[in-house]
Design a protein that fits this description.
homodimer, alpha+beta, Arc Repressor Mutant, subunit A, Alpha-Beta Plaits, 2 domains, 4-stranded antiparallel sheet, 5 strands, elongated, DNA-binding, Transcriptional regulator, AsnC family (chains A, B), WH_DNA-bd_sf (chains A, B), DNA-binding (chains A, B)
DNA sequence: CATGAAATTTTCTCCAT
DNA sequence: ATGGAGAAAATTTCATG
């Protein structure tokens, strides 16, 4: 599917505030409400807009201890990789998990309440997963920037 | 502010799909539409729900080259840190930036179109920032998991 | 893509617990 | 204070040109 400059501007607005009314959007884009409505539907149908979510302030809910864990697997056979990835997907503490180049390695972003909870997560959950070779964790001191908005 | 089990369930639903109508939410929570409405307003007022956003599918817009850059500053004086953080905030390619423990170090998540664009980003933008000592980049092979939803 | 009408949803008021 | 029912206001959605 193709998207033009107006779609790009529309996506920018929606990525920043998806609760704006189509009327508000139409004013910013100099379009009619219907035109905005149809463009949004097109972006949703095509899958470019994949989800609408509410973002929760971590610190307001007392859950702002963030750790990054580098993980190496003992072996990298298809089986182990698939199994590891499936198990990681089920851990709610893991917000992000990336398979990285370099050392056939994973990077996990883990969110818990505090250091104690992190220790428990490591002992009770992460290291219970088979085939993990080594881990190396770093802790967040400060979140300098965090956006979900992609510039197009 | 306090939030109970119903608020927690409501946050779970909103973090997954913020476009549900209050009626749909009321059915899932066994509440009236008004009760849902008031709870949502309370969560917004208190800042627990800080933003509503549309999530864009990176691969659908041909922008799915993700790099993680570890950065060390030459010095760690207040001035340098503040300046570095301000500049990073203005780079649209940087989606996330964390100040980490350990080596007085930063971790950046960078999103660009492809390796060529990443090279340009490094040469033209990142290394143009003063006081950067060393950088180390890793590239994403696969996004195993990525959620914005916090479990409460 | 715009206009205008219909359907749905949000939002408010009032009342009960 | 908290939540429910229903009316009013606003918005989304659709038909037509």
């Amino acid at each position: 599917m193709t998207f033009d400059a107006i779609d790009r501007e529309l996506l920018k607005l929606l990525q920043n505030d998806s609760k704006q009314t189509n009327k508000a959007l139409s004013l910013q884009l100099n379009l009619s409400v219907t035109a905005v409505y149809e463009r949004i539907k097109k972006l949703e149908k095509s899958g470019i807009v994949k989800q609408y979510v509410a973002l929760v302030d971590k610190s307001k809910v007392k859950k702002d201890f963030v750790a990054f864990c580098h993980i190496k697997l003992v072996q990298h056979s298809q089986d182990y990789v698939v199994k590891f990835e499936r198990e990681v997907n089920q851990l709610h503490e893991v917000l992000e998990c990336y398979h990285l180049s370099g050392d056939y390695d994973y990077l996990l972003k883990v969110l818990v309440k505090d250091m104690k909870a992190f220790r428990e997560f490591m002992v009770e959950k992460l290291t219970k997963i088979d085939h993990i070779g080594s881990t190396h964790s770093m802790f967040m001191i400060n979140e300098v920037k965090h956006t979900t908005a992609i510039t197009l």
